[in-house]
Amino acid sequence: MRIVRDHSAVPPDARGASAAIGNFDGVHLGHQAVIAAAAGRDAAPLAVVTFEPHPREVFAPDAPPFRLMNAAARAHRLEKLGVDLLFELPFDTALAALTPEGFVDEVLARGLGLGHTVVGADFRFGKGRAGTAADLRRLGGAAGIDVTVADLIETGGLEVSSTRIREALSDGRPEDAAAMLGHLHRIEGPVLHGEKRGRTLNYPTANMALDGLHLPRLGVYAVQADVLTGPHTGTYDGVASLGVRPMFGDNRPNLETFLFDFDGDLYGETLSVALVAYLRDEARFDSLTALVAQMDADSARARAMLAAR
How confident is the model at residue 283, as a pLDDT? Predict the structure, then answer.
Protein backbone atom coordinates (compact mmCIF):
# COMPACT_ATOMS: atom_id res chain seq x y z
CA MET A 1 0.00 0.00 0.00
CA ARG A 2 1.31 3.42 -0.97
CA ILE A 3 0.75 6.43 1.29
CA VAL A 4 0.40 9.88 -0.29
CA ARG A 5 0.35 12.87 2.05
CA ASP A 6 0.12 15.82 -0.36
CA HIS A 7 -2.97 16.27 -2.51
CA SER A 8 -1.07 18.70 -4.73
CA ALA A 9 1.58 16.11 -5.67
CA VAL A 10 -0.31 12.96 -6.60
CA PRO A 11 1.57 10.62 -8.99
CA PRO A 12 -0.15 10.15 -12.37
CA ASP A 13 -0.70 6.42 -11.76
CA ALA A 14 -2.56 7.21 -8.52
CA ARG A 15 -5.19 9.33 -10.22
CA GLY A 16 -8.61 7.98 -11.13
CA ALA A 17 -8.87 5.95 -7.93
CA SER A 18 -12.07 4.75 -6.32
CA ALA A 19 -11.84 6.12 -2.78
CA ALA A 20 -13.63 5.75 0.52
CA ILE A 21 -13.53 9.02 2.50
CA GLY A 22 -13.58 9.47 6.26
CA ASN A 23 -11.55 9.47 9.47
CA PHE A 24 -11.76 5.66 9.86
CA ASP A 25 -10.85 5.68 13.56
CA GLY A 26 -10.92 2.01 14.52
CA VAL A 27 -11.71 0.86 10.95
CA HIS A 28 -14.91 -0.68 12.29
CA LEU A 29 -17.62 -2.59 10.40
CA GLY A 30 -19.23 0.62 9.14
CA HIS A 31 -15.91 1.82 7.77
CA GLN A 32 -15.29 -1.56 6.20
CA ALA A 33 -18.66 -1.38 4.41
CA VAL A 34 -17.71 2.01 2.93
CA ILE A 35 -14.36 0.64 1.76
CA ALA A 36 -16.02 -2.48 0.29
CA ALA A 37 -18.39 -0.26 -1.69
CA ALA A 38 -15.36 1.49 -3.20
CA ALA A 39 -13.70 -1.79 -4.25
CA GLY A 40 -14.07 -3.52 -7.59
CA ARG A 41 -14.56 -0.32 -9.57
CA ASP A 42 -13.31 -1.43 -12.99
CA ALA A 43 -9.49 -1.28 -12.97
CA ALA A 44 -9.32 1.72 -10.64
CA PRO A 45 -7.03 1.39 -7.62
CA LEU A 46 -8.82 1.11 -4.28
CA ALA A 47 -8.04 4.14 -2.14
CA VAL A 48 -8.89 5.66 1.22
CA VAL A 49 -8.90 9.41 1.82
CA THR A 50 -8.37 10.27 5.47
CA PHE A 51 -6.88 13.00 7.61
CA GLU A 52 -3.99 13.30 10.06
CA PRO A 53 -4.23 14.53 12.72
CA HIS A 54 -7.86 13.72 13.36
CA PRO A 55 -9.89 16.95 12.91
CA ARG A 56 -11.08 16.78 16.53
CA GLU A 57 -7.46 17.07 17.67
CA VAL A 58 -7.19 20.35 15.74
CA PHE A 59 -10.49 21.85 16.89
CA ALA A 60 -10.32 20.62 20.51
CA PRO A 61 -6.62 20.12 21.35
CA ASP A 62 -7.25 20.08 25.10
CA ALA A 63 -9.97 17.42 25.00
CA PRO A 64 -9.21 14.02 26.57
CA PRO A 65 -7.57 11.50 24.22
CA PHE A 66 -10.23 9.73 22.17
CA ARG A 67 -8.55 7.91 19.29
CA LEU A 68 -8.98 4.16 19.01
CA MET A 69 -5.79 3.80 16.97
CA ASN A 70 -2.85 5.87 15.88
CA ALA A 71 -2.05 6.63 12.25
CA ALA A 72 0.34 3.69 11.84
CA ALA A 73 -2.16 1.18 13.25
CA ARG A 74 -4.89 2.56 10.97
CA ALA A 75 -2.61 2.20 7.95
CA HIS A 76 -1.79 -1.40 8.86
CA ARG A 77 -5.49 -2.26 9.22
CA LEU A 78 -6.37 -0.61 5.90
CA GLU A 79 -3.59 -2.52 4.16
CA LYS A 80 -5.04 -5.78 5.49
CA LEU A 81 -8.33 -4.83 3.81
CA GLY A 82 -6.63 -4.64 0.41
CA VAL A 83 -6.39 -0.85 0.10
CA ASP A 84 -3.91 0.12 -2.63
CA LEU A 85 -3.56 3.84 -1.89
CA LEU A 86 -3.88 5.76 1.35
CA PHE A 87 -4.30 9.50 0.87
CA GLU A 88 -3.44 10.65 4.40
CA LEU A 89 -4.02 14.39 4.09
CA PRO A 90 -2.56 16.80 6.67
CA PHE A 91 -5.51 18.38 8.46
CA ASP A 92 -4.79 22.01 9.30
CA THR A 93 -6.59 25.33 9.44
CA ALA A 94 -6.21 25.83 5.68
CA LEU A 95 -7.92 22.54 4.88
CA ALA A 96 -10.56 23.18 7.56
CA ALA A 97 -11.35 26.57 5.99
CA LEU A 98 -12.29 25.11 2.59
CA THR A 99 -15.96 25.36 1.71
CA PRO A 100 -17.68 22.16 0.57
CA GLU A 101 -17.33 23.41 -3.00
CA GLY A 102 -13.64 24.19 -2.47
CA PHE A 103 -12.93 20.80 -0.89
CA VAL A 104 -14.47 18.91 -3.81
CA ASP A 105 -12.81 21.08 -6.46
CA GLU A 106 -9.36 21.64 -4.95
CA VAL A 107 -8.81 18.37 -3.08
CA LEU A 108 -10.94 15.60 -4.58
CA ALA A 109 -11.11 16.61 -8.24
CA ARG A 110 -8.04 18.67 -9.21
CA GLY A 111 -5.80 17.43 -6.38
CA LEU A 112 -6.43 13.71 -6.01
CA GLY A 113 -8.12 13.23 -9.38
CA LEU A 114 -10.64 10.74 -8.01
CA GLY A 115 -12.96 8.89 -10.34
CA HIS A 116 -15.33 7.56 -7.68
CA THR A 117 -15.92 8.25 -4.00
CA VAL A 118 -17.87 6.45 -1.30
CA VAL A 119 -18.98 7.99 2.01
CA GLY A 120 -21.28 6.97 4.82
CA ALA A 121 -24.76 8.44 5.05
CA ASP A 122 -23.68 10.62 8.01
CA PHE A 123 -20.64 12.12 6.23
CA ARG A 124 -20.03 15.85 6.73
CA PHE A 125 -17.31 17.96 5.14
CA GLY A 126 -16.17 21.49 4.44
CA LYS A 127 -15.94 24.55 6.66
CA GLY A 128 -18.16 24.20 9.71
CA ARG A 129 -19.11 20.69 8.55
CA ALA A 130 -21.57 22.41 6.25
CA GLY A 131 -21.51 19.80 3.50
CA THR A 132 -23.62 16.62 3.62
CA ALA A 133 -23.46 13.35 1.71
CA ALA A 134 -26.16 14.71 -0.59
CA ASP A 135 -24.03 17.80 -1.24
CA LEU A 136 -21.06 15.61 -2.09
CA ARG A 137 -23.16 13.68 -4.58
CA ARG A 138 -24.25 16.94 -6.25
CA LEU A 139 -20.84 18.64 -6.22
CA GLY A 140 -18.98 15.47 -7.15
CA GLY A 141 -21.25 14.85 -10.12
CA ALA A 142 -20.61 18.36 -11.39
CA ALA A 143 -16.86 17.74 -11.08
CA GLY A 144 -17.00 14.43 -12.94
CA ILE A 145 -16.71 12.23 -9.82
CA ASP A 146 -19.18 9.42 -9.25
CA VAL A 147 -20.42 9.39 -5.64
CA THR A 148 -21.88 6.47 -3.72
CA VAL A 149 -23.51 6.95 -0.30
CA ALA A 150 -23.31 3.79 1.84
CA ASP A 151 -25.94 2.91 4.41
CA LEU A 152 -24.95 2.91 8.08
CA ILE A 153 -24.27 -0.49 9.65
CA GLU A 154 -26.08 -1.79 12.74
CA THR A 155 -25.43 -4.60 15.21
CA GLY A 156 -28.12 -5.64 17.65
CA GLY A 157 -30.38 -2.90 16.34
CA LEU A 158 -27.84 -0.17 17.19
CA GLU A 159 -25.64 1.80 14.84
CA VAL A 160 -21.98 0.81 14.76
CA SER A 161 -19.91 3.85 15.74
CA SER A 162 -16.54 4.76 17.19
CA THR A 163 -18.41 6.29 20.15
CA ARG A 164 -20.13 3.02 21.04
CA ILE A 165 -16.83 1.16 20.67
CA ARG A 166 -15.16 3.58 23.10
CA GLU A 167 -18.00 3.03 25.56
CA ALA A 168 -17.56 -0.74 25.37
CA LEU A 169 -13.82 -0.44 25.98
CA SER A 170 -14.36 1.97 28.88
CA ASP A 171 -16.70 -0.58 30.45
CA GLY A 172 -14.18 -3.41 30.11
CA ARG A 173 -16.11 -5.15 27.32
CA PRO A 174 -13.48 -5.80 24.63
CA GLU A 175 -15.61 -8.62 23.19
CA ASP A 176 -18.44 -6.16 22.46
CA ALA A 177 -15.97 -3.70 20.97
CA ALA A 178 -14.60 -6.47 18.73
CA ALA A 179 -18.12 -7.33 17.53
CA MET A 180 -18.52 -3.76 16.25
CA LEU A 181 -14.97 -3.45 14.97
CA GLY A 182 -14.97 -6.73 13.09
CA HIS A 183 -11.56 -7.40 14.65
CA LEU A 184 -9.96 -7.28 18.09
CA HIS A 185 -9.16 -3.85 19.46
CA ARG A 186 -5.40 -3.34 19.27
CA ILE A 187 -2.84 -1.02 20.78
CA GLU A 188 0.17 -0.64 18.51
CA GLY A 189 3.52 1.02 19.06
CA PRO A 190 7.17 0.62 19.98
CA VAL A 191 8.39 -1.26 23.05
CA LEU A 192 9.89 1.24 25.49
CA HIS A 193 12.43 0.88 28.26
CA GLY A 194 10.69 0.85 31.63
CA GLU A 195 11.71 0.33 35.24
CA LYS A 196 12.41 -3.37 34.48
CA ARG A 197 10.69 -4.44 37.71
CA GLY A 198 9.01 -7.35 35.92
CA ARG A 199 12.35 -9.08 35.40
CA THR A 200 12.95 -9.26 39.14
CA LEU A 201 9.52 -10.90 39.56
CA ASN A 202 10.09 -13.41 36.73
CA TYR A 203 7.51 -11.51 34.65
CA PRO A 204 9.44 -9.45 32.08
CA THR A 205 7.04 -7.21 30.22
CA ALA A 206 6.98 -5.23 26.99
CA ASN A 207 6.05 -1.66 27.91
CA MET A 208 4.09 0.58 25.53
CA ALA A 209 2.85 4.16 25.80
CA LEU A 210 -0.83 5.04 25.45
CA ASP A 211 -0.36 8.70 24.52
CA GLY A 212 -3.18 10.13 22.43
CA LEU A 213 -5.34 7.01 22.68
CA HIS A 214 -8.68 6.43 24.33
CA LEU A 215 -8.05 4.53 27.56
CA PRO A 216 -9.91 1.24 27.89
CA ARG A 217 -10.92 0.25 31.41
CA LEU A 218 -7.79 -0.01 33.55
CA GLY A 219 -6.99 -3.53 34.64
CA VAL A 220 -5.60 -6.87 33.52
CA TYR A 221 -6.43 -8.45 30.15
CA ALA A 222 -5.90 -11.68 28.29
CA VAL A 223 -4.18 -10.56 25.08
CA GLN A 224 -2.79 -11.72 21.79
CA ALA A 225 0.30 -9.84 20.62
CA ASP A 226 1.79 -9.57 17.15
CA VAL A 227 5.49 -8.71 17.07
CA LEU A 228 5.67 -6.74 13.82
CA THR A 229 9.39 -6.03 13.55
CA GLY A 230 12.72 -7.59 14.47
CA PRO A 231 13.92 -11.18 14.77
CA HIS A 232 10.98 -12.36 16.89
CA THR A 233 8.13 -11.51 14.49
CA GLY A 234 5.09 -13.66 15.10
CA THR A 235 1.97 -14.00 17.21
CA TYR A 236 2.06 -14.74 20.93
CA ASP A 237 -0.54 -15.19 23.65
CA GLY A 238 -0.08 -13.26 26.84
CA VAL A 239 -1.47 -11.28 29.72
CA ALA A 240 -1.26 -7.50 30.05
CA SER A 241 -1.73 -4.84 32.66
CA LEU A 242 -3.21 -1.61 31.38
CA GLY A 243 -2.94 1.03 34.07
CA VAL A 244 -0.90 3.12 36.47
CA ARG A 245 0.86 0.42 38.57
CA PRO A 246 -0.62 1.30 41.98
CA MET A 247 1.92 -0.87 43.81
CA PHE A 248 4.71 1.46 42.73
CA GLY A 249 3.12 4.90 42.87
CA ASP A 250 3.11 5.54 39.12
CA ASN A 251 0.37 7.71 37.65
CA ARG A 252 0.96 7.66 33.89
CA PRO A 253 -1.05 4.89 32.24
CA ASN A 254 0.83 2.44 30.06
CA LEU A 255 0.47 -1.09 28.74
CA GLU A 256 2.73 -3.84 30.11
CA THR A 257 2.47 -7.15 28.27
CA PHE A 258 3.91 -10.47 29.39
CA LEU A 259 4.23 -12.90 26.47
CA PHE A 260 3.83 -16.57 27.31
CA ASP A 261 6.69 -18.90 26.39
CA PHE A 262 8.80 -16.08 24.98
CA ASP A 263 12.47 -15.33 25.48
CA GLY A 264 14.00 -12.40 23.63
CA ASP A 265 14.72 -8.69 23.52
CA LEU A 266 11.88 -6.54 22.15
CA TYR A 267 13.13 -3.05 22.99
CA GLY A 268 12.52 -0.71 20.07
CA GLU A 269 10.45 -3.26 18.14
CA THR A 270 6.81 -2.61 17.20
CA LEU A 271 4.05 -4.60 18.89
CA SER A 272 0.36 -4.81 18.15
CA VAL A 273 -1.43 -5.97 21.30
CA ALA A 274 -5.04 -7.14 20.97
CA LEU A 275 -7.32 -6.97 24.03
CA VAL A 276 -9.16 -10.30 24.06
CA ALA A 277 -10.85 -10.42 27.47
CA TYR A 278 -10.97 -8.36 30.65
CA LEU A 279 -9.81 -10.30 33.71
CA ARG A 280 -9.90 -7.94 36.68
CA ASP A 281 -9.43 -4.39 37.95
CA GLU A 282 -6.10 -2.97 38.98
CA ALA A 283 -5.30 -3.64 42.62
CA ARG A 284 -2.75 -2.74 45.26
CA PHE A 285 -1.20 -5.67 47.16
CA ASP A 286 0.30 -5.83 50.62
CA SER A 287 3.51 -7.46 49.38
CA LEU A 288 5.40 -8.48 46.27
CA THR A 289 4.69 -12.10 47.18
CA ALA A 290 0.96 -11.41 47.01
CA LEU A 291 1.42 -9.54 43.73
CA VAL A 292 3.32 -12.43 42.14
CA ALA A 293 0.68 -14.92 43.35
CA GLN A 294 -2.01 -12.85 41.64
CA MET A 295 0.07 -12.58 38.48
CA ASP A 296 0.40 -16.37 38.46
CA ALA A 297 -3.37 -16.67 38.74
CA ASP A 298 -3.93 -14.06 36.01
CA SER A 299 -1.55 -15.88 33.67
CA ALA A 300 -3.22 -19.24 34.26
CA ARG A 301 -6.66 -17.78 33.64
CA ALA A 302 -5.51 -15.94 30.50
CA ARG A 303 -3.90 -19.10 29.11
CA ALA A 304 -7.12 -21.03 29.62
CA MET A 305 -9.31 -18.36 28.04
CA LEU A 306 -7.04 -17.91 25.02
CA ALA A 307 -6.75 -21.68 24.52
CA ALA A 308 -10.56 -21.92 24.54
CA ARG A 309 -10.79 -19.39 21.68
Answer: 87
